[in-house]
């Protein structure tokens, strides 16, 4: 048997299905008698709804029903809940205005659902939706953070003064201010983290079904966490008990965070299916993805570093405005707080840190986690600020990092912003990356490029992130309304094949392969005999889903614990069959042996005996070889590393070519190197997209200007370089696999590497900072002598 | 309603459609061939690419009626009858050129046409430019480019790697 366990780059089990057109995505599912829902959405950023005339639409051919927010209110349908409560500086809870499934009285962003038309065909529903007359009274809108907090700004929610959702802080301001007062040098940088639109390639979709005989509901949906959707929608929105509601998330075509949240459409199709006693399907058109999928990032920050005369970091002080959009999405409040501010120590031993965050409502699509979720914002701010420190103090960019790194012998390391890092070696990832990128040889390449009329630059980012969300008690104390453990149920079948039921969800990560490799490793079962089942509340005991690079660290550990139980029970059965003491039974390579003898039983012998026994200690041991385990992590995991970007700017056009990109990451133990490399490359592509191309643009009133793939620049094959990936491993110390997580490191480490490289390329032009996306137009203006937004302080 | 007669994956079909029915709707909804995907509404993403008379076409940008009398090949028709994968499918698997799988059918169909139309060989730049019409959000394209370069000699029956 070829080696298929931990460390093998086995080819993915799911690929033949996907490559043959046999994937089963939500829009591929059609149920007998199915109807189609089309949602008429607000085309206004902010308006009062004076009336809705649905008479003509209701009479249109093929139309079965037309629903408004009033119909939902009449059925006592609840609003969409928020899963995280942040408290203000003064201890009071955040503002948490209602989030109706279908707008009631007022629309608060372009894309807000206003009317639902259900018809026999998709086209009939869409045609009829055009016949609905909505009497809007436009209100002034606010889109940008600065406009929303300006005195006298229009209020997104009448009862939320100043549009402030919360005003939160972390760290000791008095101590930090004192450190600044005594500092030899203070470096200040204002910066924006540009708003992004996730754009998973599969648009969201949902099919609701009601069984009139049993009274059971089924929802098929494009979700990263079906159990969470069942809990939120069942308990808070539709009031359906969980024994009557099954949520299935089949193959899902990418998520990147955007498919974590409980969305209006899931509740709409489930509710309508119950009312109409027929299945109801909704599939987003891409323009709906742009105006209804939760967006990402959108921060405005002021960052200051206090340094001593030798360039040692003394204190960090941050003030951030974070855009929440028109309503609170499921996890929105925790992103700019506990997934952002707690990461501001980064890889540095800065002794004291203070960060305050104001979360702000605007007339834009709700903002929530997008690949990296808070950590990219922290990494961009910190790695840009460190480069600004080098710039202002005329120190070397690499030397100032090394000097301030947390040393490799300082772990476990307690940061001043709550987290305790368990392991890491930042010198090692930096050294390996400098070597792989031939950093030492760069100046010769800069000169060669200059001879061709190109401006060449190199940028370094040494980032850190936190994964494996989350220790339930810790996040509970921070405002999470649910614990975030994980579950695995592992069945060894009578003839020795294995099914893994995991509460995590794969939407591109390759869990069907990676998780099966854990079974190969621990139970010695060949990969071909292991199936991984995910995404169905009808099959899996429970689970919190996949996000925050948690699937291996939390879900994988639950599997290890379940397999430990299987081995422990197998030993008891083996001891009985081989007439030995349990203490003398050993398990290795799929075999139970009696120590010091040649007696052995395979796992299959044991599983057969466990299910269909002739000779079994049934009084002492229940039959079956089927174990469930839960794992609540002890701490977060802390992947980190170094990314180096090398860029060339065409002086005449401002067009950037990323000529080299190297990532050396510490993701803990690697289960499948091929998959890890692919995850990092994909993350880096999204990070380069953020740095150079992507930007969700609103006009001042809240009209979405980048509302299609013709307006929003998605990275294409010829925008991106080859991406060299390396790893330098330190093991996580608090989970048995030693894994940390690799899904988001690419998107977290890469944006500052790109911008640092561009600033380096343009150092002859007096540029200290460039806002993302660094478009050709922006760079061309700098080269032409235009004033960059942030001149040197 | 008008009728359209076409061959899909070697099989004759005569289907009633509306004038406005798109080829992708015919494939997915009338013939149940859900391997071809719809990822956008502006002809940008290429998830819907199929071959019409041997040439790649975005099936979301073509009316079903325009396909009357043509022979259409979709991702479902690519592997041999015994399940042997097309070299492009095999190289996508070998080089981990897919993650979520949603863009994959269109990506594979585009890639085959790209390789077919470059019998003299392809540079990496040509491959990247040739993929302009297909979006992937998962892979960063790195492994897709590698897979296409590896499929070229297999498809053109040459042992040497693409130049």
Descriptive account of the structure:
The complex is a heterodimer of chains A (793) and B (163). In chain A, 28% of the residues lie in helices and 23% in strands. Chain A has a seven-stranded mixed β-sheet with strand order 3-5-1-12-9-10-11, sandwiched between helices. Chain A has a five-stranded mixed β-sheet with strand order 7-15-14-13-8, sandwiched between helices. Chain A has a four-stranded mixed β-sheet with strand order 18-26-27-28, with helices on both faces. In chain A, a hairpin with a 5-residue loop joins strand 13 and strand 14 (313-325). Chain A starts with 14 loop residues before the first helix and ends in a 10-residue tail after the last helix. Chain B has 163 residues and is of the alpha+beta class. Chain B contains five helices and five strands; from the N terminus they run E-E-H-E-E-E-H-H-H-H. Chain B has a five-stranded mixed β-sheet, with helices on both faces. The longest helix of chain B has 14 residues, at 142-155. The model of chain B has no long low-confidence stretch (mean pLDDT 95). At the A-B interface, helix 1 and helix 18 of A face helix 2, helix 3, helix 4 and helix 5 of B.
């Amino acid at each position: 048997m070829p080696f298929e366990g931990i460390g093998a780059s086995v080819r993915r089990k799911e690929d033949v299905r996907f490559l043959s057109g046999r994937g089963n995505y939500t829009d591929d599912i059609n149920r007998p008698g199915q109807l189609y829902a089309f949602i008429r959405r607000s085309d206004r950023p902010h308006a009062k709804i004076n009336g809705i005339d649905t008479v003509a639409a209701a009479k249109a051919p093929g139309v079965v029903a037309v629903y408004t927010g009033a119909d939902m209110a009449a059925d006592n349908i609840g609003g969409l809940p928020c899963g995280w409560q942040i408290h203000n500086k003064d201890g009071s809870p955040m503002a948490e205005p209602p989030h109706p499934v279908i707008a009631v009285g007022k629309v608060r962003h372009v894309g807000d659902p206003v009317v639902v038309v259900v018809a026999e065909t998709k086209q009939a529903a869409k045609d009829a939706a055009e016949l609905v007359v909505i009497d809007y009274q436009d209100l002034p809108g606010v889109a940008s953070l600065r406009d929303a907090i300006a005195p006298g700004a229009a209020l997104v929610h009448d009862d939320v003064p100043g549009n402030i959702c919360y005003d939160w802080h972390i760290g000791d301001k008095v101590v930090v201010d004192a450190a600044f007062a005594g500092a030899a040098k203070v470096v200040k940088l204002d910066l924006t983290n540009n708003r992004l639109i996730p754009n998973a390639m599969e648009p969201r979709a949902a099919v609701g079904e009601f069984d009139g005989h049993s009274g059971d509901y089924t929802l098929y949906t494009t979700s990263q966490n079906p159990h969470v959707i069942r809990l939120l929608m069942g308990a808070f929105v539709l009031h359906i008990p969980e024994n009557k509601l099954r949520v299935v998330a089949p193959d899902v075509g990418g998520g990147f965070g955007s498919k974590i949240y409980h969305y209006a459409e899931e509740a709409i199709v489930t509710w309508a299916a119950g009312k109409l006693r027929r299945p109801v399907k909704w599939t987003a058109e891409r323009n709906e993805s742009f105006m209804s999928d939760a967006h990402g990032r959108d921060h405005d920050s002021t960052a200051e570093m206090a340094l001593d005369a030798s360039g040692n970091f003394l204190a960090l002080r941050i003030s951030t405005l974070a855009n929440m959009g028109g309503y609170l999405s499921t996890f929105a409040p925790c992103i700019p707080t506990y997934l952002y501010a707690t990461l501001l120590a980064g890889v540095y031993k800065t002794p004291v840190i203070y960060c305050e965050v104001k979360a702000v409502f605007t007339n834009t699509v709700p903002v929530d986690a997008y690949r990296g979720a808070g950590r990219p914002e922290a990494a961009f701010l910190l790695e840009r600020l460190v480069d600004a420190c080098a710039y202002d103090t005329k120190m070397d960019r690499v030397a100032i990092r090394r000097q301030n790194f947390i040393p490799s012998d300082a772990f476990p390391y307690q940061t001043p912003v709550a987290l305790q890092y368990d392991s890491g070696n930042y010198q090692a990832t930096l050294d390996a990356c400098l070597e792989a990128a031939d950093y030492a040889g760069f100046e010769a390449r800069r000169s060669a490029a200059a001879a061709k009329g190109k401006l060449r630059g190199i940028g370094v980012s040494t980032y850190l992130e936190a994964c494996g969300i989350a220790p339930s008690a810790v996040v509970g104390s921070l405002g999470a309304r649910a614990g975030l453990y994980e579950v695995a149920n592992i069945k060894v079948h009578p003839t020795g094949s294995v099914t893994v039921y995991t509460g995590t969800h794969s939407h591109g990560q390759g869990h069907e392969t990676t998780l099966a490799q854990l079974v190969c490793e621990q139970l010695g079962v060949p990969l071909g005999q292991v199936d991984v089942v995910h995404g169905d509340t009808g099959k899996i005991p429970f689970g919190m889903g996949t996000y925050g690079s948690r699937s291996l660290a939390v879900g994988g550990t639950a599997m290890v614990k379940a397999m430990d139980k299987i081995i422990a029970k197998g030993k008891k059965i083996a001891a009985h069959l081989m007439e030995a003491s349990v203490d003398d039974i050993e398990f290795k390579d799929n075999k139970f042996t009696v120590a010091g003898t040649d007696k052995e039983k395979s796992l299959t012998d044991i599983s057969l005996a466990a299910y269909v026994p002739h000779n079994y200690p049934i009084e002492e041991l229940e039959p079956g070889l089927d174990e469930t385990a839960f794992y609540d992590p002890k701490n977060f995991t802390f992947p980190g590393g170094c990314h180096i970007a090398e860029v060339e700017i065409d002086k005449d056009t401002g067009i950037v070519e990323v000529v080299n990109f190297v990532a050396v990451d510490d993701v803990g133990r690697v289960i499948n190197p091929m998959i890890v490399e692919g995850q990092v490359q994909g993350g880096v592509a999204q990070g380069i997209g953020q740095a150079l191309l992507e930007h969700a643009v609103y006009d001042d009133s809240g009209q979405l200007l980048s509302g299609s793939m013709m307006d929003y620049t998605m990275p294409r094959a010829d925008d991106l370089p080859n991406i060299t990936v390396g790893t330098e491993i330190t093991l996580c110390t608090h989970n048995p696999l030693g894994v940390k997580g690799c899904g988001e490191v690419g998107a977290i480490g890469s944006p500052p590497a790109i911008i640092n490289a561009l600033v380096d390329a343009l150092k002859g032009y007096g540029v200290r900072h460039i806002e993302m996306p660094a478009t050709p137009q922006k760079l061309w203006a700098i080269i032409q002598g235009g004033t960059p937004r942030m001149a040197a302080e | 309603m008008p009728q359209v007669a076409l061959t899909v994956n070697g099989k004759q079909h005569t289907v009633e459609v509306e004038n406005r029915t798109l080829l992708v709707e015919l494939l997915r909804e009338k013939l149940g061939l859900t391997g071809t995907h719809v990822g956008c509404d502006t002809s940008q993403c290429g998830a819907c690419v199929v071959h019409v008379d041997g040439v790649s076409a975005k099936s979301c940008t073509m009316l079903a009626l325009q396909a009357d009398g043509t022979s259409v090949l979709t991702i479902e028709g690519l592997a041999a009858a015994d399940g042997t994968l097309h070299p492009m499918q095999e190289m996508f698997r070998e080089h981990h050129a897919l993650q979520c799988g949603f863009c994959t059918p269109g990506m594979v169909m585009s890639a085959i046409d790209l390789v077919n139309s470059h019998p003299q060989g392809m540079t990496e730049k040509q491959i990247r430019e040739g993929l302009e019409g297909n979006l992937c959000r998962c892979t960063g394209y790195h492994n897709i480019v590698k897979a296409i370069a590896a499929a070229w000699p297999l498809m053109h029956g040459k042992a040497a790697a693409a130049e």
